[in-house]
Write a structure and sequence with these properties.
The protein has 449 residues and is α+β, with helices and mostly antiparallel strands. The chain is 34% helix and 18% strand. It is built from 13 helices and 15 strands. It is globular and about 60 Å long.
Length: 449
């Protein structure tokens, strides 16, 4: 630890009365894991280790026994990114948090960690003098507490004592209904340095969308990770659940994480536009990369059984990878913009996706399209309906898992070890799902079979 950095950290901790630091990272599901460390030890550069299996811990809490994961379960080092150090907004006592990288003991990045994967993809851009710019749009629901998983999620009571019926898109009255939560959440995001742009009420009952400001891809992923962490913690403090499932309520709108992406050269020029403002060839190549490799990477964008309930016709959730200008029926939408802001909106990812993995997969596919000079399909017109073209994305979790497992392209873009490990974890989660008997089975099969 550099003595100057140690002194700087100690001053920060003393100024805010901080006793402990949350040393966190996102596991394969994007869930925050890590260790709590005394602030004095953190400032002194104390080494922190964790088992290599933790970054690939299944959402069920289980671990895969695939041979890709050593049975010896070796250690990793957790190495802080000091630029992410912030005060924890919800702790009962003053506490800080910092996002960490998972580093093998030989100094190489852990191939199973999402932040490592994103850094690997970004290094490919950097090698070509390119810098991706990303802006996530994240949707989620606020619901009443749910203590029985057999019961449906319900909207919380509003100021007038009633629950919201939904279909209140862009309603400011409905946006104001849970004002104490929003006030605390906005304050938490400010403390964490998460740069939110616009806030809207979405179509579903107490469903919302927050647009994060565009910026560096790694910083955007860090902010999306902290956004979800903060939403859940602040919601609990207000007797609510913040729900990022892709389809949490039957018959209601699904929740997405749209990714707006552009690419800058070393001069800061958007390479998707020519000097005269028209679109460049690389713009089309980037789109073509997403079209060519998007289905192979579907399990990244839709990582759970529930994810595939979101892809319903006429729901503004895409069912194919067609593209168009300002057309929300397509998987790839090009918003109207000035030449400097020309970008591709990938509408495939759900709110349940790990932001590090989703951004990495989308950028890897786009870069491959540019490297290989792939050509996109002809764009649909703004009045065309992409739903009429039918499903071209995997229809189920199992088909997406099979597609990724056997995809040479996915292994080339994301790394063989990562894809093997990721698919092993997803297979484990599917086996766990098969052990559950659903309400649908009891409702229809019990009386009639």
């Amino acid at each position: 630890m550099n003595p100057a950095k140690s002194s700087e950290l100690n001053r920060f901790f003393e100024q805010h009365g901080i006793r402990d630091v949350e040393c966190i990272f996102a596991d394969v599901s994007g869930y925050p894991r890590g260790k709590l460390m005394p602030a004095s030890a953190f400032a002194a550069g104390g080494e922190l280790r964790i088992a290599q299996a933790i970054p690939m811990q299944a959402v069920t809490g289980d671990y895969s026994d695939d041979a890709i994961f050593p049975q010896s379960d070796p250690d990793l080092r957790l190495v802080p990114d000091y630029s992410t150090l912030k005060r924890s907004p919800w702790s009962s006592v003053p506490r800080a948090m910092a996002i960490h990288d998972c580093i093998e003991l030989d100094g190489t990045p852990c191939v199973f960690a999402g932040r490592s994967l994103l850094k690997t993809v970004l290094a490919r851009y950097q090698a070509q003098g390119l810098t991706p710019v990303v802006a996530p749009e994240i949707e989620f629901y606020l619901t009443a507490p749910n203590t029985d998983p057999n019961q449906s999620l319900l909207p919380p009571a509003a100021r007038n004592g009633r629950t919201e019926a939904g279909q209140s898109a862009f309603s400011l009255n409905m946006l104001n209904e849970l004002a104490p939560f929003w006030d605390a959440f906005r304050s938490a995001l400010d403390t964490l340095g998460v740069r939110a742009d616009t806030w809207i009420h979405e179509v579903g009952p107490t469903q919302y969308e927050i647009n994060l400001q565009h910026g560096d891809a790694l910083a955007a992923a860090d902010q999306a990770f902290l956004f979800k962490y903060a939403a859940k913690e602040v919601a609990i403090q207000h007797g609510l659940n913040a729900v990022f499932m892709a389809k949490p309520i039957a018959g209601a709108a699904g929740s997405s994480m749209h990714l707006h992406q552009s690419v800058l050269d070393t001069s800061g020029h958007n390479i998707f536009s020519k000097e005269d403002g028209t679109q460049s060839a690389r713009f089309g190549h980037f789109i073509a990369g997403l079209q060519s490799y998007g289905t192979d990477l579907m399990l990244i964008f839709a990582p759970f059984i529930n994810s595939y309930r979101r892809f319903v016709k006429l729901s503004q959730a895409p069912i194919n990878l067609n593209w168009a200008y300002d057309n929300r029926t397509t998987g790839l939408r090009i918003p109207h913009s000035a030449a400097a802001a020309r970008r591709v909106e990938n509408r495939i990812a759900g709110a349940d996706a790990n932001p590090y993995l989703a951004i990495a997969a989308s950028l890897a596919a786009g870069l491959a399209g540019m490297d290989e000079a792939l050509m996109p399909d002809a764009p649909l017109s703004p009045v065309d309906n992409a739903y009429e073209l039918g499903h071209a994305l995997p229809r189920s979790y199992l088909s997406a898992l099979d597609k990724m497992q056997h995809s040479a392209a996915a292994r080339r873009l994301l790394g063989d070890a990562f894809v093997t490990g990721y698919c092993a974890v997803k297979s484990l989660e599917y086996e766990s799902y098969l052990n559950e008997i659903s309400a649908w089975e009891r409702r229809f099969l019990l009386p009639q079979v």
